[in-house]
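stage 2 :: seqdesign
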């Protein structure tokens, strides 16, 4: 009965109008997930897994690795070439996974349980990425990168640990990957869930309880502070699986902006946890979307500008990887073209990051090295039912 009442309450709340923010300038925000998250280690790891019987290469995420310092430099090269009317470069909001699996003590433990290695302490054994942390920080100082919080692991730890306790094909698959220095490949094992979401539970119980989420978020925020000498102001839950407890906890840790996935054309608005909620509106994923085209992305951005809402571009880190498979070059060419087309059509375009948007809706201005920039912000009422598109997830 309780869950029926909860569902009715949630449905009723979706019908309540909210105030959405609209802007009189074209705004582009680039949001990108999974930075710092280790995947397939290198060619040797790839061959090891193929020898163990995994037919790697069936999907792009089989070849997901981890960015290199060269990938970051090439990306910054494109972003710095694109400056807006205020002289600021295009800026990528990078959502970080701030810990990886610590394979050395895990192996000593016979791969029976998880040990984590904070990204601030480096990368797991046999992973080699010289200059990577320095590369993140350089981009942040330059204004082309902005660090935000994704989580400490992408998968649900309790779901994986439960599987490890069984002698099953699932446990064997996990250990095969771990022996090759790869934490997981999600599409091959969706039962690992997402950090705050355990798929083995009943539908309405899959989100972890508030105290558990609190522990995980507190741990992530601590590592983030060590990594970047600041607290995160924006966050995106792994798999976009967040609930009221996630939002309230984020808010308690000083996070101001909640990033949400694509599928709707929702304007920025305040909701749970007094967070500014942003929804992605442009699907810029050349590495994984066979239907990707620059033209289509330009069309999605133009539709946002017409409605007076920011073009919030989703572009996951895999698109910039080159270590095992070169996804990077195609993406950078496409990104360059995308930004060139938009800025030539809209000379008044501005590149903002999440915190700028927060400042803008609060104060009507955001800070640039040249002083405060004002943009007219208006509020219009909308309901969730109005903005849910056919592709909503
Ligand atoms: Zn992610």
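stage 2 :: out
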């Amino acid at each position: 009965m309780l869950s029926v009442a909860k569902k009715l309450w949630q449905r009723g709340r979706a019908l309540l109008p909210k105030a959405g923010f609209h802007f009189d300038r074209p705004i582009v925000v680039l949001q990108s997930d999974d930075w710092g998250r280790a995947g397939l280690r290198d060619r040797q790891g790839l061959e090891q897994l193929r020898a163990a019987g995994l037919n790697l290469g069936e999907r792009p995420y089989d070849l997901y690795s981890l960015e290199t310092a060269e990938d970051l430099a090439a990306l910054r090269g494109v972003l710095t070439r694109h400056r807006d009317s205020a002289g600021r470069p295009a800026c990528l909001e990078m959502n970080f996974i701030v810990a990886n699996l610590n394979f050395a003590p895990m192996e000593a433990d016979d791969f029976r349980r998880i040990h984590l290695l904070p990204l601030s302490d480096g990368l797991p054994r046999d992973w080699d990425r010289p200059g990577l942390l320095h590369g993140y920080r350089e981009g942040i100082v330059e204004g082309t990168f902005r660090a935000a919080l994704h989580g400490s692991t992408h998968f649900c730890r309790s779901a994986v640990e439960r599987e490890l306790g069984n002698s099953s094909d699932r446990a064997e698959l996990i250990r095969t990957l771990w022996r090759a220095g790869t934490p997981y490949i999600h599409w091959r094992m969706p039962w690992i869930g997402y950090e705050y979401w355990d798929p083995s539970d009943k539908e309405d119980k899959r989100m972890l309880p508030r105290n558990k989420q609190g522990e995980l978020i507190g741990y992530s925020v601590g590592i983030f502070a060590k990594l970047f000498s600041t607290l995160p102001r924006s966050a995106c839950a792994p798999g976009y699986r967040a609930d009221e407890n996630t939002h309230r906890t984020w808010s308690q840790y000083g996070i101001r902006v909640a990033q949400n996935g694509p599928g709707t054309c929702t304007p920025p608005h305040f909701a749970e946890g007094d967070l500014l909620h942003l929804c992605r509106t442009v699907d810029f994923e050349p590495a994984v979307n066979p239907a990707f085209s620059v033209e289509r992305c330009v069309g999605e951005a133009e539709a946002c500008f017409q409605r007076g809402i920011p073009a919030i571009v989703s572009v996951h880190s895999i698109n910039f990887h080159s270590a095992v498979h070169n996804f990077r070059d195609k993406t950078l060419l496409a990104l360059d073209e995308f930004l060139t087309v938009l800025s030539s059509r809209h000379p008044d375009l501005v590149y903002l990051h999440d915190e700028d948007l927060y400042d803008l809706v609060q104060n009507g201005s955001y800070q640039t090295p040249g002083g405060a920039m004002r943009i007219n912000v208006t509020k219009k009422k909308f309901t969730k039912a109005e903005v849910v598109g056919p592709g909503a997830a």
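stage 3 :: structure notes
- The CA atoms of residues 4 and 10 lie 10 Å apart.
- Confidence is low (pLDDT under 50) at residues 389-393.
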